[in-house]
Each structure stands twice: as structure tokens, then as C-alpha cells.
Amino acid sequence: ETGVTQSPTHLIKTRGQQVTLRCSSQSGHNTVSWYQQALGQGPQFIFQYYREEENGRGNFPPRFSGLQFPNYSSELNVNALELDDSALYLCASRIQGLETQYFGPGTRLLVL
Amino acid sequence: SQELEQSPQSLIVQEGKNLTINCTSSKTLYGLYWYKQKYGEGLIFLMMLQKGGEEKSHEKITAKLDEKKQQSSLHITASQPSHAGIYLCGADIRYGNKLVFGAGTILRVKS
Predict the structure, then answer these.
(1) Considering only CB atoms, which chain A residues are within 8 Å of B44?
(2) Do A43 and B92 touch (CB under 8 A)?
(3) pLDDT band for position B30 (50/70/90)?
(4) Banded model confidence at residue B31, pLDDT cuts 50, 70, 90
(5) Which of these ranges, B32-41, B73-82, B94-103, has the smallest mean pLDDT?
(6) Which residues of A touch B100 (CB under 8 A)?
(7) Which pLDDT band, with edges at 50, 70 and 90, does B28 fall under?
(8) Residue A19 has pLDDT above 90, yes or no
(9) What's the confidence (pLDDT) of residue B16?
(10) What pLDDT, on the 0 to 100 scale, is given for residue A1?
(11) Phi/psi at A22 (nearest 5 deg)?
């Protein structure tokens, strides 16, 4: 148990729809990162939030967006879903200035 | 990711045997992380290495970092069924803790 929780655990959407995934950070962790993990691959960095602002972004289009709230919880929003968006979405939290990231259990998204 | 190459891709070992997983970076490493993942689940942090020559151990798992070669190895001694899973190396190669991961090594331990 890392103390990082994600919801929902699974969901199914159709192409073109929008989805919101949620992450609750480990207590005291002020930095959250989101990763996409396609089947059989390692996680790929989407973006990172610190103090409610985006603090780094990977090679993902603008239809992937996020929010961080004052309590450090976070959301990942994906608009205009595509079939290739089907993946396990992981969030990870840490304390800014400390390196180790702790991952949540992930949300499995299937786009039909 | 081509920035981090893991080998082997998969591994089947007999319970009690030792094994080594390797991770090689094509870029300068600012930190190297090892995680374990059960299929479809989140990542469990194992160890982080930052300095060249650093070696860390936890129970029967030892990780080493060769900064000059930009390589890390994960060694499991006397493997057990509980060691089965996917081992992922992640590296901070752009500084700022945005991790790049290898594709993972699938480990199966036969009883």
C-alpha cells in the first residue's frame, strides 16, 4: 500500500467521448505525475503538477489535460478519446525535492 | 522506450536460482529507479540509485549502478514465487523527476 489511490479502477468509453480520472496523493505529497502504460510497455510520462500548475509535459497532445487541487489530489482529463488511448493510467505522488515517486494502482481505460 | 533498454524481455527461472536483469540508458542518468509490477496493477517501489558505483540491497534483491556505462543491474538471489512479476527500470534522464521507463522484464519463477 503506497497511500496513493485512483478512481475508477476500470472504465469503458467509446471513441470521441471524454473521460476524467482521479488520483488522491499520499499524505503530504505535493507533486503528482501521470503516466500512460499501454499493454506490454513501460509507463510513459504524460505530465506533472506541482502547486496546482503543470510542471513538465511529455509527448502527449493537448486533449490530455490535468488539474491539481489545493489538497494535492489530481485529475487527468482526456477529450475526443481514440482507440489508442486504451491503457492503464497511473498516477504517482512525491514530495517536491525528494526523488522517489509512489504509484497508485491505476485506472484501466478501454476505448471501443 | 528506446532511451532505456531492458534485458532480457522475459525470464523463467527455477525456484531457488539466482537471476539478473539489466537496464541500459542511451542518455545521462540523473537517477535510476527499480519498480516491480504485478500484471495490470500499480508499480511498487524497490530501490533508487543515484551515484556511480552505488549498490543497494533489500531482502534478496540487490541493485547496482554503473554511471560510466549508464547501466544498472538488478540481481535476485535464491528466487521465490513471490518474486514473479514485471520489473521496470525508470530513469530521470531529463532532470526534474520526469521518469522514462524501460519496457519491463517479465519474471516467472517455477516451483
Answers:
(1) 2, 103
(2) no
(3) confident
(4) confident
(5) B94-103
(6) 45
(7) confident
(8) yes
(9) 97
(10) 64
(11) -125, 150
Which string of DSSP letters, residue by residue, matches chain A? --S-EEE-SEEEE-TT--EEEEEEPPTT--EEEEEEE-TTS--EEEEEEETTEEEEE-S--TTEEEEE-TTS-EEEEE-S--GGG-EEEEEEEE-TT----EE---EEEEE-
Side-chain-side CA neighbours of A21 within 13 Å: the count stands at 30
Rounded CA separation B66/B55 (Å)? 9
What average pLDDT does the structure give for chain B? 90
Residue contact B1–A42, C-beta within 8 A: yes
Distance of CA A63 to the CA centre of its chain: 13
Cα–Cα dist B86/A63, whole Å: 30
* A33 residue type, one letter: S
User: Which grid cell is B104?
Assistant: 519491463
Hey, is the C-beta of A23 within 8 angstroms of any chain B C-beta?
no
* 3-state SS assignment for residue B43: strand
Element (H, E) at B10: strand B10-14
The answer to whether A66 faces chain B, any CB pair under 8 Å, is no
So what's the pLDDT on residue B96?
60
CB contact under 8 A, A56 and B98: yes
